[in-house]
Amino acid sequence: MTLLRAIVAIARRLSVLLSMFLMAACVLRSMPFEGDATLSDRGYWSYSPRYKIDFPGFSLREPGEYLFRFRGVPDVALSLTLPVQSDLPDTRLKTVTTWVDAQLANGSGKPVCEATGALKDWVLMSSSTQEQAYWQKQCTELRLRNDEWYSLRVRVTNIEALSATTKITPRLSGGGWDSL
After folding, report:
1. Same domain, yes or no: 20 and 36
2. Which residues contact residue 54 at a Cβ distance below 8 angstroms, ignoring those fewer than 6 apart?
3. CA separation (Å) from 127 to 49, 118, 124, 132, 134?
4. 102 with 114: CB under 8 angstroms?
5. pLDDT tens across 135-161, in order?
6. Boundaries of domain holding 7
7. Does 43 share its domain with 16?
8. Tens digits of per-residue pLDDT, 5-55?
9. Within this chain, do residues 80 and 39 fall inside the same structural domain, yes or no?
């Protein structure tokens, strides 16, 4: 009986050590987020999206090209959206002819996704928080590697004269317990 208790005690200690080793391996395997954006994590029990990677925003009133680099993304499917802040009504945002090219590429320059076209050809979604964002299907459910550098290039051309201030803030988002 004493031998059996000793074996059980050793097995428990080994299982605790193995659990600690596996957790440490997972933590060490993932790179911390770094780059030209801000990563926010709303916690394990949050609804989608749990993770938001927000890049610096820019105005749609003038042409420009914006390049952002980053790595250390969470290990979840991410989608690229262009949240919009504007005084324009939905009906007007759905007809904006300003052209936007967005390309997400891995560290070797290979495109992961490309979304392009006049904003009127993008899908404009609205959330329960009253946030609106443009998106295209080919840039959804992206699986990125945590240890690889990525670049997001956004080009704005063919500017339409907008009567209101309209700003775009590129975002990668995903995760959440309801997306498991």
Report:
1. no
2. 37, 38, 40, 169, 170, 171
3. 11, 22, 10, 6, 12
4. yes
5. 999 999 999 999 999 999 999 999 998
6. 1-30
7. no
8. 767 667 677 665 555 544 444 443 467 999 999 999 999 888 879 999 999
9. yes
